[in-house]
Design a protein that fits this description.
Layout: E1 7-10, H1 28-41, E2 45-48, E3 50-51, E4 58-59, H2 62-74, E5 80-83, E6 90-91, H3 110-113, H4 115-120, E7 124-128, E8 132-134, E9 137-139, H5 143-156, E10 159-164, H6 167-178, E11 186-192, H7 202-210, E12 216-222, H8 227-236, E13 241-242, E14 250-252, E15 255-256, H9 260-273, H10 281-288
Parallel strand pairs: 1-2, 1-13, 2-5, 5-7, 7-10, 10-11, 11-12
Antiparallel strand pairs: 3-4, 6-9, 8-9, 14-15
Amino acid sequence: MPQKTILTCPVTGNVTMPSQNENLPVKPAEIAQAAVDAGKAGAAVAHIHVRDPETAKGSMDVSLYREVIDRIRDAGSEIVINLTTGEGQRFVPGEDEPKVAGPGTTLAPPALRVTHVKELKPEICTLDFNTMVNQTWTVINTPPTLEVMANAANEAGSKPEIEIFDSGDLNMAKDFIARGILNPPVMFQFVMGINFGAAANPQTLTYLVSQLPEDCIWAAFGIGRHSYPMLALSYLMGGHVRIGMEDTIYVAKGELAKSNAQLVEKAVGIVENLGGSMATPTEAREIIGLKPL
């Protein structure tokens, strides 16, 4: 097991809505405060999406990302900042003509999806290596798209965190490593429990971990009711962990979370009760190979 365990807190995501939990952060000030509070509770990394303050839907507005980052740093937080590039990957087939995009489609050119990374140069940015069906839509991330985005991250000095939703995604990531697009040690994040993706169970995670390249850093997390079981399993198998309101809005069965910090506090308790200790942001930077803040 790692000497210290890195906990990433994804504070808002882009799917869950305030109607499901009124404590979900939506405005930049709320998102930034959630990240700061998660850091105080034990998270070393904050994974950031931004949302349109009026509609609460996911956004790619660079000014919103900049405001969130500035607010986090102005508050004195040293938490590692990890920005998503997941916006702009959704395709909803038209009901009458499937090859025409229907309502809800967000599919965008790869260069647009990494504009905020190129301008703001976060320490980490995620790259979703999946093309898959999720609920009623399809997520599309082709190799040419991901190559553009990975190169942009490399040029910005941002460490890509590779999001793996199933075994084929990992095969594609290995191809990127072989072609020198992803540079070791590569960061992997296994996403477990999404409909039609990797199942949230020990057998599936064991297989995925067995296929990892030797020189890498990895973590796994579960969606919804799988969040805490997969957090414990990831730690016990030697990985890092993740918990936040992007992944679950409940702190216990039937009990809505009051904040991301509450979720983090519970996660820290689980890891520590299993014998682990949490990495600080400074220690996380050393483990990942990032420059000191």
